[in-house]
């Protein structure tokens, strides 16, 4: 074709086009004040069309108007104003009763009305096109999800009446047990969530607006309804736009539905385009493909659909004239335009998928993504389409990850029992809720662990105070251990003892406290001193040793006196050469001398020789120490009233039958007696079982009351005894610990969290935090430290042989030394005498020994030898050898004198 023919044809076509639709086509948009983003998308979508001449040859002009959701008058005014400006279609409003009004006005004027929010009506008006999937279509999807998840019973947690309308068949289903619960209108949903937890509701369909959803999820986590036991189906199509990280590690199965795929090219290019338009205005409202909402995407698709329908309408006969609400005129092309929009043949690929309508005007061919919250965020696990229904790639929720799994943001249900000071009710003048209700060592320990490991926790109370024991006949566990095994709780903490039996049923962390069984009994009663309390300062052993050394020293002194030549004296000092010598150390005198010094009195007897003086000195030293010790200890005995208990240890308690004894029912203490191989303990267990109604208690507190009011001894764990005796001075611990064990946090068997919890407990121990906590809860909080001064054993104890043994050793050493000295003195004297009298040394020595060996009498005749004057000699000593024996004073004229 030649250029000369082409040019007039082009001009003709151009004129024809210009003569069809006016150059600028106005479209009106009605928005509420909260719909800023939808309004922006409305404008940007229009500009996108204008920038792409392939879609429409004309320019679109967006006229956004703000309306109030319940003000019909102003809405109808606005619609009339828009119609007066000659709009080709009206978009919105998104919600509110006014949308019906706009629809009927558009119907009257034959102006297409485009809606993007859900609408329950079963018949679409002629001039209405709604891009939102019909709620009944979505309800069908939720039904299929509930079936795929195998929920026989579930709870529908809804916000208001419209939710129930929307969910339709889901709430009316008869083949499943459905519980309906409404969220709190004022935003505090904790009560309803708590009720759900208590009644064990695990499968939840949550239907609420996006404004409410984050708060509901947060509160669900706070009350412990966000654990691995719960599964949620969240109906909001905008689930992906909120931060789900806090719930992503807790193991809760959260399923949602997505209409906009942020990874699709069409979404990414639209968002990029909007960003570009934003940048041209010098703004950035932060829309990304990740946070684009369904209402924004539908608005974009609605404008696109409208523009494509307009382009099909674009013919010379078409005009758009302003319409007057007062007159009955209408737009002649409205019907065609709306039919082009609803035409099932045309397919538009929008941000929300293929946009097609059925004969009734409902959106059809919908394809949605099924999303599930996993440890790495929301993941697509399947699809749902109106044609093929649900197609889950993985129908079973993912298995919990393995050992290294973080506890971050997990919520543990922690069960505790009331036992001071591990778990106690917080005292408050106002009613407390949830975790605030409790305080104590165990509660603080869980809190510290949660800070270290980043988990959340919710405390629950074991109302019957049963910690858990195995019924050997039925094989059933009771109490908190049962709750862990039945997965009604994740952790258990109180003064829960780690036992081999329990360790088979559940796991325990490293012990956070060590202890042993002891006896709680009334504090020792004060006793008035006994008649023979003067004997108390020394033990019987010491008294016996004292008596022995007294006798020993006296006898030694007597013997030494006889051996030692210097103790033989002239009885008549004025006679220069006496016939015989006298010794003061007779046996009686020796006894008298030693007792005299022991009693601190002295006597007229005084030793003369070095050796006897040595004996006397060491004895005086001994008596000095012993008497001082006695006096000091006697003072203590007389000033301090001694306190006693009727028994000193467990065996004395077992061997009597006046004082009753018992322990906590089903506790590890009573089981210690049951499992012990010691027949004495078994005997005690048999006694407790025989009298169990009388002697076994449900709580430690009951045991304490029995101790105070009856003649009763209570077997209790030492840490608990320590706590009580810090506050109640009427009771005390008796005897030593019977065993040694520890308290741990119980967790269900083979839990992947045990190691992390144990490591954290160890870290708390190593940093000294546990010791500080213990000190505070035991000695400071709730009246601790009351019995510090009065408690403890102030009783003086008698000195035993270990206390005074050293003095005895010194005494014995001194005596041995003086024996040598005595021998030395004897030999020296014999030697000198033998030389002086010119007799044999041995002869003289034998004569001395013979005399000593006689051990008789306190006088000693002076021996005379043959070479001496016989006249002077006294008669020969009886038994003495007259041949060798010459009566002679060998003790010269100057014997020792004191
Ligand atoms: N700690 C014990 C237990 O875990 C309870 C108290 C007791 O038996 O003395 O069973």
From TrEMBL:
Family: Belongs to the glutamate-gated ion channel (TC 1.A.10.1) family.
GO MF annotation list: ligand-gated monoatomic ion channel activity; signaling receptor activity
Transmembrane feature ranges: 531-559, 618-640, 804-827
Feature type site, description Interaction with the cone snail toxin Con-ikot-ikot: 674, 763
The organism of origin for this protein: Zootermopsis nevadensis
Binding site for L-glutamate: 497, 502, 668-669, 717
CDD domains reported for this sequence: PBP1_iGluR_Kainate
Entries under Pfam families matching the protein: ANF_receptor, Lig_chan, Lig_chan-Glu_bd
Protein name: Glutamate receptor, ionotropic kainate 2
UniProt feature, compositional bias: Basic and acidic residues: 863-873
Compartments (UniProt record): Cell membrane; Postsynaptic cell membrane
Topological type in the membrane: Multi-pass membrane protein
GO cellular component: postsynaptic membrane
Every Ionotropic glutamate receptor L-glutamate and glycine-binding domain range: 421-486
Presence of keyword Cell wall biogenesis/degradation: no
Cleavable signal peptide: 1-20
């Amino acid at each position: 074709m030649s250029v000369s023919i082409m040019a007039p044809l082009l001009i003709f076509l151009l004129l024809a086009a210009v003569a069809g639709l006016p150059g600028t086509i106005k479209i009106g948009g009605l928005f509420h004040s909260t719909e800023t983003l939808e309004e922006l998308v409305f404008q940007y979508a229009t500009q996108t069309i204008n920038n792409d001449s392939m879609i429409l040859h004309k320019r679109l002009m967006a006229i956004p108007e703000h309306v109030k959701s319940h003000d019909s008058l102003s809405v109808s005014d606005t619609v009339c104003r828009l119609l007066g400006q000659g709009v080709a279609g009206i978009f919105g409003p998104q919600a509110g009763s006014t949308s019906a009004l706009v629809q009927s006005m558009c119907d009257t004027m034959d102006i297409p009305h485009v809606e993007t929010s859900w609408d329950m009506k079963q018949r679409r008006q002629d001039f209405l096109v709604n891009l939102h999937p019909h709620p009944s279509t979505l309800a069908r999807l939720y039904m299929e999800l509930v079936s795929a998840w195998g929920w026989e019973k579930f709870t529908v947690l809804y916000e208001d009446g419209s939710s129930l309308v929307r969910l339709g068949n889901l709430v009316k289903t008869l083949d499943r047990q459905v519980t309906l619960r409404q969220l709190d209108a004022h935003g505090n949903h904790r009560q309803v969530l708590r009720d759900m937890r208590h009644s064990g509701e695990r499968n939840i369909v949550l239907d609420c607006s996006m404004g409410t959803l984050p708060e509901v999820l947060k509160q669900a986590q706070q009350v412990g309804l966000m654990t691995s036991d719960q599964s949620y189906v969240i109906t909001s199509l905008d689930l992906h736009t909120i931060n789900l990280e806090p719930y992503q590690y807790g193991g809760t199965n959260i399923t949602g539905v997505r209409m906009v795929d942020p990874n699709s090219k069409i979404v990414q290019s639209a968002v990029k385009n909007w960003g570009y338009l934003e940048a041209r205005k010098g703004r950035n409202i932060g829309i990304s493909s990740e946070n684009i909402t369904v209402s924004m995407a539908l608005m974009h698709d609605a404008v696109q659909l409208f523009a494509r329908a307009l382009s099909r309408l674009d013919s010379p006969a078409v005009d758009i004239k302003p319409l007057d609400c007062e007159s009955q005129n209408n737009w002649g092309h409205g019907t065609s335009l709306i039919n082009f929009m609803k035409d099932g043949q045309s397919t538009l690929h929008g941000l929300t998928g293929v946009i097609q309508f059925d004969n009734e005007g409902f959106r059809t061919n919908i394809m949605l993504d099924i999303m599930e919250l996993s440890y790495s965020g929301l993941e697509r696990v399947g699809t749902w389409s109106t044609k093929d229904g649900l197609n889950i790639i993985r129908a079973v929720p993912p298995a919990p990850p393995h050992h290294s799994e973080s506890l971050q943001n997990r919520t543990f249900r922690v069960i505790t029992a009331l036992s001071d000071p591990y778990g106690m009710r917080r005292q408050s003048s106002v009613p407390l809720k949830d975790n605030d209700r409790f305080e104590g060592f165990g509660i603080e320990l869980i809190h510290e662990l949660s800070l270290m490991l980043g988990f959340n926790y919710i405390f629950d109370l074991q109302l019957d105070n049963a910690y858990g024991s195995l019924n050997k006949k039925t094989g059933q566990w009771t109490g908190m251990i049962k709750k862990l095994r039945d997965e009604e709780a994740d952790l258990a903490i109180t003064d829960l003892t780690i036992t081999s039996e329990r360790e088979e049923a559940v796991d325990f962390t490293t012990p956070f406290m060590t202890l042993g069984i002891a006896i709680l009994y009334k504090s020792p009663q004060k006793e008035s001193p006994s008649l023979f309390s003067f004997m108390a300062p020394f033990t019987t052993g010491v008294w016996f040793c004292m008596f022995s050394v007294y006798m020993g020293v006296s006898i030694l002194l007597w013997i030494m006196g006889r051996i030692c030549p210097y103790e033989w004296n002239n009885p008549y000092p004025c006679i220069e050469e006496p016939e015989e010598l006298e010794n003061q150390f007779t046996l009686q005198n020796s006894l008298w001398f030693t007792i005299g010094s022991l009693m601190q009195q002295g006597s007229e007897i005084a030793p003369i020789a070095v050796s006897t003086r040595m004996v006397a000195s060491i004895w005086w030293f001994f008596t000095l120490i012993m008497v001082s010790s006695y006096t000091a200890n006697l003072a203590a005995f007389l000033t301090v009233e001694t306190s006693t208990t009727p028994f000193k240890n467990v065996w004395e308690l077992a061997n009597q039958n006046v004082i009753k004894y018992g322990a906590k029912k089903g506790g590890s203490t009573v089981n210690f007696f049951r499992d012990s191989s010691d027949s004495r303990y078994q005997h005690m267990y048999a006694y407790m079982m025989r009298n169990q109604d009388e002697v076994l208690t449900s709580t430690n507190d009951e045991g304490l009351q029995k101790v105070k009011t009856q003649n009763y001894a209570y077997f209790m764990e030492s840490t608990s005894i320590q706590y009580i005796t810090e506050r109640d001075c009427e009771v005390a611990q008796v005897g030593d610990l019977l065993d040694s064990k520890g308290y741990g946090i119980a967790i269900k068997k083979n839990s992947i969290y045990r190691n992390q919890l144990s490591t954290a407990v160890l870290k708390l121990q190593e940093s000294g935090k546990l010791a500080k906590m213990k000190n505070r809860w035991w000695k400071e909080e709730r009246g601790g430290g009351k019995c510090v001064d009065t408690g403890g054993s102030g009783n003086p104890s008698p000195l035993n042989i270990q206390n005074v043994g050293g003095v005895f050793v010194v005494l014995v050493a001194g005596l041995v030394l003086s024996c040598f000295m005595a021998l030395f003195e004897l030999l020296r004297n014999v030697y000198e005498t033998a030389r002086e009298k010119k007799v044999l040394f041995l002869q003289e020595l034998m004569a001395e020994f013979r005399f000593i060996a006689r051990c008789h009498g306190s006088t000693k005749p002076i021996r005379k030898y043959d070479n001496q004057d016989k006249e002077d000699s006294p008669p020969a000593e009886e038994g003495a050898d007259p041949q060798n024996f010459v009566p002679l004073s060998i003790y010269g004229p100057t014997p020792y004198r004191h």
